[in-house]
Amino acid sequence: MLPTEWLAEHSAELVANAVDSVLDDVTADQGHDRRLRTLIARWIG
Question: Are 34 and 26 in contact (CB under 8 A)?
């Protein structure tokens, strides 16, 4: 298998896992920086 084939088959899974990890961190931490930025943006916007 060529490296490009492996990347094509696994890149979506790697990205999805990374996004899941970030979202889990945000969900678990009420003071997470991304959560605070969203709340401030909603308050201002």
Answer: yes
Decide: helix, strand or coil at residue 34.
Answer: helix
Q: What is the pLDDT along the chain (45 residues), one digit of tens a residue?
A: 678 888 888 898 888 999 899 888 888 888 888 877 887 788 887
Asked if residues 29 and 35 have their Cβ atoms less than 8 Å apart, the reply is: yes
Report residue 37 as tokens: 């930025």
Q: Within 13 Å of residue 18, how many CA atoms lie on the same side as its CB?
A: 6
CA distance 40 to 45: 8
Q: How many CA atoms are closer than 13 Å to the CA of 40, on its beta-carbon side?
A: 7
